[in-house]
C-alpha cells in the first residue's frame, strides 16, 4: 500500500497493489476522523495534527509500474501548481536513492527520510486492507511530531535534516568525533569497511582483527547462600571509564604521561628525514598510536556530559547511552579497534576496582559482569539487606571514579543455590513485594509471634525459582527431568525452611527464647545434613533404582536415543540413571557445608547404578559447551551483554518457529540476523588467527623466528600455539547452533571451512 498526502490541498492518494482490481478498502475518511479525534481527546496538541476534512482517492492496481506512474503523475501535477518551497517526507522500507531511481520526479525535491518501519507480519492477515489503512493514517498523524524531533536533533548535530541516516546516533557520534579530531589537527581515518583508513598500512596488519575483541570480564562463585542476595543492575561503566581514565591509571601507580601506551609521537619532519625512532612503539602495540585520539574522545564525552548537566539536553543523553555501541560498531565511519582496545583495558581495571569496593564494604560478590552484580549481603532480613545495599552503593558513588555509575536493585533472593548464570535456583522475592517489606510485622520483645495472615502474605510474596540448564540434557522418558526438578525443589525448600527457623525460632518452637547467633549456621547445617542423609537419600535410592530398571541404556527398544540433542551437546550420553545421579549430586554439592554427606550419598547412588566411584564415567562434566559471544547490544534497552550461545535463555519466534535469544535485562528478543553476522565474523577471526599464529618448539618452548628452518636450534620440532582441536570444536559448536536456530548462512560457511581444511 502506498499513501501520498498533500497538506496544502488536503488531498490524499492511496494506491493498493493487489492481485485483483476489487476495491475492498474501508472508509478512509471515517478512519482519519476517528484517529484524529482520539488523539485530541488524549491531549495531543492540535498544532501537531493535520487539518480535518481530507479527501481520499483510492486506486487499485495489479502492476507495480502503474503505481509508480500514478505517484509521479500526482507529484508532477503538484509541481505545476507552483505552491512554493516544498519538501517531500518519505517513510518507506526503500531508501531515498531507490525511490528516486524508480520515480525520477522525486529527485527534483528535497527529501526528508523517516526511518520508521512496520512489522513484517503487518499484512499477514485476512483483512490486510483495513490494517494497512489504519497504519497509513497513524503514520501520517505522527509526521509533524516526528519532524519536530528530527529538527531538534539536527540542530544539536548541526547537520541538514535530509542527511540523517537510519542510525542517527552512530552518525552523530561520528560527526562529533570528526569535528573534535579536526580541531586537534588529526587526519581522519574514515572508512566504510571495518578497517580504518591508515593509508594502506591497515591492509598489512591483521593483529587487532585476528585477536579476540575483548577478554570476557566475568566473575562467578558457585555456592549455597542462605542469607539475602540482591541482583544489582550497573549502568555507565564505559562512559565512567573514559571520564576517569587518568584517575584509574594513577590508582595503579602510573601516570597518563609516562604510561607505556603513550609513546612519543614522531613529527612529519622527522618522518620525512628519517629521524624518527627505528622501532616506534606502534610496531609493538597498535593502541599506543591512538593515545592522542583517545584523549580527544574523552573531551567529546565530557562535552556531552556537560550538555546533560547544564542544559538537560536529551540528545546528548542519548549519545551517552549509545556511546559504547558506537565505539564497537563496525559500520561507523570512525571505527578504530585500537581505541576500543584501550577502553577495554581500562574498563577491566574499573570493573576490578568496583568488585574490590563491594568486598571491602563486607559484601560477597557471587557474580559480576559489566552490567550486572549479584551480591550476598550476609543479612537475614530483606529490609536490612536492601538498606545495606543502598548504603554500599551510595558509598561507592561518593568515590570520584564511580560517581557516574547508576545502580538499581533488580531482584532479591532469600536463599540462592548458585552454579553459574545458566544453573541456579532459590527462593525469590517478587519484585512488587520488595518495596513492601518495611510494612511486614516482625517478632520483637512485645509481640513474639506473627499473625497467620502476615505469614500467608509473606509466603505469597515468595516464589521458588529453578533455572538449571543441565536438566535439558536429561531424558524426559520415565520422568527423569521432572524428578530432577522435584528433588532440587524439595531440597531448596527444606534448606530454606531450616535456615529460616534459625533466623526466627519462635515460628515453630517456644523452648529457646534467646538462641546463640554463633550456633545458628551450625544448627541449621546439622539439621540439613540429617534431612539429606535420611529423607532425601532414601527418596533418591528409590528413584535411581526405578530409572535403572526402566531405562538400562540410553536407547529405547525401537532404537531411538532418549537423550535430547540441544545446542552445545558434545558428550556421548548412554546411561540415564548415571546422568541423573551426577546432575543431582552436582547441585547438592554446591553447599560446601554438606560436602561429606553428599560425597557419601554419591558413592551409594553410584553403587546402585553399578559404576565405580573413581572411574572416568563417574566424573562430573558439564554436558554443554559454552561459547560466549561478546558485547551484544540490545536495541531496546541498549545494554551490552555477553551471550552464551549454547546456554542462555531463548524464546520461540511466533512467525518462523525458530528460537531467539532474549536480553537478560529487558527480556526482549535479540535480532537473530545480527547475531548470525557476529558469529560469521567470529568464524573468520578464528580462521585468520589460526593461519597467522606463531609456531613454538615443543621442547624449549621458543617461538620460531626463522621462516625456512624445519627444526629448532635445540633439535625440537615446531607446533602451533593454538591447537587445531579448539578450532574444530568451535566449528562443531557453531554447526550445532546453526541447525538449532536455523542459521543457513552460518552453516554454509562452517561447512565450507571444514571442507577446505580437512
Automatic annotation (TrEMBL):
Gene Ontology biological process terms in this record: base-excision repair, gap-filling; DNA replication proofreading; leading strand elongation; mitotic cell cycle; nucleotide-excision repair, DNA gap filling
EC number annotated for this UniProt entry: 2.7.7.7
Catalytic activity from the UniProt record: DNA(n) + a 2'-deoxyribonucleoside 5'-triphosphate = DNA(n+1) + diphosphate
Superkingdom field: Eukaryota
Composition bias, Acidic residues: 516-525
Cell compartments where the protein resides: Nucleus
Main location: nucleus
Name listed for the protein in its UniProt record: DNA polymerase epsilon catalytic subunit
Species whose genome carries this gene: Stegodyphus mimosarum
Lineage of origin: Eukaryota, Metazoa, Ecdysozoa, Arthropoda, Chelicerata
